[in-house]
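One chain is below:
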Amino acid sequence: MATVSDITVSAAINSLSALLFLVAFAILRLQPVNDRVYFPKWYLKGIRENPSTAGPYVKKFLNLDVRMYLRFLNWVPAALRMPEPELIDHAGLDSAVYIRIYLLGLLLTCLDPPVSLISNFHLPMLIILCSLKIFVPIALLAFGVLLPVNYTGRNFNTMSDDMKDLAFGEIDKFSISNVPPASKRLIAHILMAYVFTFWTCYVLYKEYKIVTDMRLHFLASQKRRADQFTVLVRNVPSDPDESVSEHVDHFFRVNHPDQYFLHKVVHNANKLAQMVEQKKDLQNRLIYYTNKHERNPNKRPTTKAGFWGLWGKKIDAIDYYTQEIEKLSKEELAERERVIDDPKSVVPAAFVSFRSRWGAAVCAQTQQTRNPTRWLTDWAPEPRDVYWNNLAIPFVELNVRKLIMAVALFGLTFCFMVPIAIVQTLANIEYIGKVLPFLKPLINKGSVKSFIQGFLPGIVLKIFLLVLPMILMEMSKIEGYVAFSALEARSAGKYHLFLLVNVFFGSIITGTALQQLKEFLKQSPSQMPETVGVSIPMKATFFITYIMVDGWAGVAAEILRVVPLVIYHLKNIFLVKTEKDRDEAMDPGSLLWPITEPRLQLYFLLGLVYSTVTPILLPFIIVFFAFAYLVFRHQVINVYHQKYESAASYWPGVHHRILIGLIISQITLLGLLSTKEAANSTPLLLALPILTLWFHRFCKKRFESAFSKFPLQDAMIKDTLERATEPQLDLKAYLKDAYMHPVFKGGEVAMMDVEEEDDDDHYLVATKRSSRRGSQAGTQEGSPEDRTGGIYAAV
């Protein structure tokens, strides 16, 4: 078990690491050669220039202006200076609301600190203003009430006489485990549980209302976008007489005669997209070897013909890649023509655009036919949010895919208990020493023990979790979601479940079993729950070390951007020839929602659970939220470039997961009190989860519809304003290529063959079928709107 000295060692290592990362960042960001790494967002907006050609820089690579080094911390007030409305215009609502999650604890009278205060860099006062909304008030109450109650309980002194092998540290004396069973002191924990629950729900309600208003205002004031006029139609029924394109056109001309405008069918171009990516990779290799030859004209570069150029016969690299590109270009052209001409490449889905936002809202938010499994409509993702590969998946496969991935997630989650047990072995290494005495000489060394228990468990767990988000993202892709935003939301949900089961419950269960191994073996079954109840709060020391590794040093490493820095300079050396190439070499990255949001939820969970159990953990969480807010605000302003804008559609999930953490904290306290002979408190605490579930249901009915539906009133207002301010708007030119597959854009053949023209002069819908009433096809269809010829009436 980690002691105070172990925690001190961990705090020293992680604080020093964070400080070194910040100092390195402050220096590297000032160098002209790194400007595109640390300020790519401004380059993408066309606002920033290369500092090597302007300003007080003496050399191209090194900044020799001493005055700037004296102000190397000016990035801190700069990150805080931009007000929230400007941040939304600059980075989008998704980024601005993400930053608000860190501020979900801000105990503020004003969300934006005075500019004069920031300019004068009164950082201590600024941090006081930016106190965390949820956890600072909870921490103040917990430290003022619960910490003295726990520390003066002296239960460990009594229990150590009866349980000789019971191990506890100085920090554990601040936990509820130090309160004797059936003590009146437990009333304080029950009262604080109510106070913490009501305060958390109050803050969540206010934040939900604010974010909902922000979303509606953002949508109302947002510039015209193609997805405002477009719906995605899936599971289009087959028709023996008409193609998918003709079928879609007829259906919407009849059922949305006044609002339907045009459509774009979806082609299965996955193989073509792979060819395009492969060709791009070959072109990068050709550029690399061409640049290499230009630097040394006397020697032709060579490569090997085997896999990735690692083995095989040596050949001329420039000639080889030139021939490969020419060969692949011919195959690409043939595949492009096949996709366009082959009716089998068209999948039963289409992007249908309407003449107004109101018409799109009506279609997206209503059932189209009597058969609820056909002609399924939903809001189309914005064009850059579309994950084209999954549009080719047959709709009937989706439920099967989701079932398979659910089973796989279950297996993966519980298989990961093995590395969790390894981590907990490191966290409880002295108990392993009792079982394996030959390790005692190593364990008894104070410095080694402090390093292993205070730092190593957190870093090992961090390493184990690095690969997991990539696996979960691939699982979400297999499930068939058609938007990057949906993929990231599903991956975040899986990762949150994984952290909840493995990192939280897994660490507690495996850690408790190892920590009190002999007690588990000796005690009768009736005594084991008491041992578990005593041991659960004592795992706070492990989570403290994890917070410092992941939340302190990990966040500081995020701002340094070591990997993008190295990759950019490698590309700059081997691939860049022009300024355009240099811009393409930038990797601004994004918020990585599937990783960062579940991590935030883990900290919310730890703070809520241990607020009444071991409040000494709360300051470490507060430091994380304050530090992460500063770092990620800087990154959002200067670095990250989001791939899409969902207008904070993810917020209901954030709210839901915080409430899950709150309910777990209530159940945990209920279980702990049951081991302390406080059965009379059970009815009082049972009310808390019930009230929290009622609160969740209330917020769901009150706010959630604003995140899935667009009010018809707002849609009509935007349409009316647009018609009044832009009467000559050519909406057809704006929409016709918005949802064209990226591999077709820029190609003349694609523009001619893929575009679905709309004819405004069609007052009578033409159809190839003379009559299908009573036909075999009609009988099989089974839905009146698909099997009658008369349904395609005059428009």
Remarks:
- Strands lie at 230-234, 260-267, 302-304, 314-316, 346-354, 376-379.
- Residues 186-221 form the longest helix (36 residues).
